[in-house]
Amino acid sequence: MAKGEAKPYGARPQWSPGRPKFRARRLLLQWVTSALALYIAAILVPGVKIEGLLGAFIAAALIAVLNALVPPLIAALRLPYMLAFGFLLVLLLDAWMVLVAADLSDRTFKVDGFLTALVVSLVAAAVTVVLEVLLGTNDDDTYSLRVTQRIARRSHARAVTNVPGIIYLEIDGLARPVLQRAVRDGHAPEMARWLASGSHRLSEWETDLSSQTGASQAGLLLGSNDDIPAFRWVEKESGRIMTCSAPADCALIEERHSSGHGLLAGGGASRSNLLSGDAGKVILTVSRMEAEKKANPGYRAYLADGYNVTRTFVLFFYEVILELSAAARQRRRDVRPRGHRSVSYAFMRAGLSVFVRDFTVHSIISDMMMGVPAVYACFAGYDEVAHHSGLERSDAMEVLRKLDQQFGRIARARRYAARPYEIVVLSDHGQTQGATFLQRNGYGLDELVQRNLREAGVEHLASGDENDTAVSKAVREATGRKQKDVDKHQVGDRKVVVMGSGNLGLIYLMEESRRMTMEEIDERHPDLLPALRAHEHVGWLLVRSAEHGAVALGAGGANFLSEGRVEGEDPLAPFSPTAAAHLLRTDGFTHVADIMVNSFYDEQVDEGCAFEELISFHGGMGGPQTRPFLLHPEELRVPDEPIIGAEAAFRVLAGWRGELQGESAE
To answer: What is the residue range of 538's domain?
Structure first.
């Protein structure tokens, strides 16, 4: 077969799912690990007594039996807000099982009360995590796979077929050049093995002007991201702000852009995304938040393994400690640029990098056991950590390494799935690094605008972080709290609204309910455009001239986009060769800002600056933020021409699904 030639998928052997088998040696090693963890926990926790290692082995065996019997019964319950109730119940059950084991162990294991039992179970879980790493037993998913496969077999919706399924794994915010260096330097060994074996190839695509998850996922999942100029924007005719993380706004975005033939139509599953892609099954999907408040069976496989709950609890707080210590180390070493890393951010990092990640992986594996034809899952941990730590610093690379490890779990689970699966890893955008506009100047874009207006006050709106959505949404979904929509409010009574979306700024002059022309802006605020153009940290402005159409303005010249000519220095020269086409497309959006502002980009040092307080950023143009990747099976080809824009990437992704599944794919 010639290189690049597609392998025919027409003649396929009948698929038969494997059955995870317990191996005696592995089972014995896990028993030893559990006994040692329990013995060490008994030493560390007051009020606990174990009569030697023999008592620890007896107690560990009793707890293992109880853990195999009781949590699956809890997971079978159909409770509202199952994630919260199930998580809490399994935590309490772990403590109860310790007490029961103490009662049954004939005085070789004693525990003073329920609270002590709870502490013992958590400490033992923490010690187990450490021992598993040291002993090399942390990569065995036999028990979890058996549970999820058993749940799937009992389900009437399971479909065993030889028609291949496809799993799309999105690493939020990871640029292709960053992944290449991570593969080279050992930070992504699983993906490195795929590339080295020839099973996968690494390709690149280019984002639209709005290089952020809302616009990219609308294109990737729905096939359309028209009129999404940034992470947040103003709809002047109604005076309303739209945000790519608010559930009501995501639902409206999906309603506006869905044709019913999204990437996940026809029985697909959406996991931890902003938009659903017309999926029939959703978990942690912002646009379908209201649909998830009932008892969602997707949580049952995760809760059926009581070890998942205590392990997640322990690793969550370990990640918090890692973040707080890393932030302190950056401050001590005076690392520059350095972002603000608060205690609340530490909890967000832990939520994304541990809980949301692990739960999403379990959801994907459960989908595979059920035979779901297509799954799309977003992993936002790298993006969030890179925003605050730096895109290739040790914190971000550690999150990527752990995520790569989870991809290995998914790949190994394929042999037990209800159908054969192909895995595609991709990103929605990259990130570019640099000190923020405020750090460089001592004032923000809103203040710069304010100084150069005539009799108009500026409303500065706090920039939005797309990654807090998964964590806060999980909490609201689990507890039943209603979304307050704090991001959505009316600004029709404001004179000027300034927003930041990474290094893309949006300036709305609310004097008119339509977009104001360059000539009108010069007449009413003659100092504004010259001041913005002349600023050393501004790369270009996009405005619309009544006479010349779309114009990109820079300090030394202008690019008349609609007319295809340049006067003086082209402000788009430091950016992508396709920059003019991206600006022209955005200029045609109904809700584009009166003035779109992009920061400078210095290719020599590969940096720009965000108009919000993120030292690694995305949202506009300049640097690797516009260079996401596709890591795809070698047999699934990419077109010869460059893939420009998320809508073009959708056609590639949907084409792969169609190639694998033929008429069975929507």
So the answer is: 437-617
